Amino acid sequence: MDRKFKVLVGAAMVVLFAAIMFQAGYAQKKPPESLMLKLNGAKFPPVPFTHFLHTEKAKVGCVRCHHGDEDPKEPGGCMPCHDRNDVKSGAPPIKDAYHKNCIDCHKESVAKKINAPTKCNECHKK
Ligand code: HEC
Ligand code: HEC
Ligand code: HEC
Ligand code: HEC
Questions:
Q1: Which of 14, 52, 92, 102 is the most buried (most CB within 10 A)?
Q2: Atom 16 in ligand 3: which residue has the minimum CA distance?
Q3: 64 lines ligand 3 (CB under 6 A)
Q4: CA dist 79 to 14, 33, 100, Å?
C-alpha cells in the first residue's frame, strides 16, 4: 500500500468512527419530561416526578435511579425487577425502593439547604 492510500483509509475510518459515536449519542432514550407515579391500587395521591429538574438542575446521573439496567442509556421502569408486594431476587418491594431512593436523597439535599420534599403530603399531593 502506498502512503497516500493509507492516509485515505485512515481518514475514512475516522469519519466512520465519528458517525458511529454520533449515532450512539443520539440513540440514548429520552426520559419522559414529567410523570405521575402511581402504583397499582395506590391509596395515596400520585407523586409528580420531573426528569428535567433532577437530571439537568440537580445534576443527578441516570444510574442513581436506573441502577439495574444493563444499558444505562436505555433504561426502562423499575417494576420489571421490583415487585409490587414482595422481595424479588433480592430487590425490595417497589414502594420501599421508591421511598429509599427518593427520600434518602431529598434528606441529603435538605441537609445541604436545598429544598426537596421529605414529608408524605409534599410528595403525595392532593
Ligand atoms: C420523596 C417523595 C415521597 C415521600 C416523602 C413519601 N412518598 Fe410514598 N411514595 C412515593 C412514590 C414515588 C411512590 C410510588 C408511586 C405511588 O405513589 O403509587 C410511593 C408509594 C407509597 C405507597 C404505596 C402506594 C399507595 O398509595 O398505597 C404508600 C402507602 C406510601 N407511599 C406512603 C407514604 C407515607 C405514609 C409517607 C410519609 C411517611 C410517604 N409515602 C412519603 C414517594 C414518596
Ligand atoms: C431521580 C431518579 C431518576 C433519574 C435521575 C432518572 N430517572 Fe428516568 N425514571 C425515573 C422513574 C421513577 C421513572 C418511572 C419508572 C416507572 O414507571 O417504573 C423513570 C422513567 C424513565 C423512562 C421510561 C421508562 C419506561 O420504559 O417506562 C426513561 C426512558 C428514562 N426514565 C430515562 C432516563 C434517562 C436517560 C435518565 C438520565 C438522563 C434518567 N431517566 C434519569 C427516575 C429517574
Ligand atoms: C434490573 C433490575 C432492577 C431494576 C430495573 C431496578 N432495580 Fe432497584 N434493585 C434491584 C436489586 C436486585 C436490588 C437489591 C440489590 C441491590 O441493592 O442492588 C435493588 C435495590 C434497590 C434499592 C435499595 C438499595 C439499598 O441500598 O437498599 C433501591 C432504593 C432501588 N433498588 C431503587 C430502584 C428504582 C427507583 C428503580 C427504577 C428507577 C430500580 N431500582 C430499578 C434491581 C433492579
Ligand atoms: C440523588 C438525588 C435525588 C433523588 C434520587 C430524587 N430526587 Fe427529587 N429532588 C432532588 C433535588 C436536589 C430536588 C430539588 C431541586 C431544586 O429545586 O433545585 C428535588 C425535588 C423534587 C421534587 C419537588 C420539585 C417538583 O418537581 O415538584 C419532587 C416532587 C421530587 N423531587 C420527586 C422525586 C421522586 C418521586 C423521586 C424518586 C423517584 C426523587 N425525587 C428522587 C434530588 C433527588
A1: 102
A2: 91
A3: no
A4: 41, 19, 15
- Where along the chain do its domains lie? 1-30, 31-123
Q: Count of alpha carbons within 13 Å of 6, Cβ hemisphere only?
A: 3
Q: What is the pLDDT of residue 25?
A: 47
Out of 3.90.226.10, 3.90.10.10, 3.40.630.30, 3.40.50.300, which CATH number does the structure's domain 31-123 have?
A: 3.90.10.10
* Distance from residue 24's CA to the centre of ligand 4 (Å): 28
pLDDT in tens, 97-107: 999 999 999 99
Expressed in angstroms, the distance from the first to the final Cα of the chain is: 73
Q: Are 94 and 39 in contact (CB under 8 A)?
A: yes
Q: Which ligand is nearest to the CA of 95?
A: 1
pLDDT at 99: 98
Which of 20-29, 50-59, 61-70 has the least mean pLDDT?
20-29
Task: State what percent of residues in the chain have pLDDT above 90.
Answer: 67
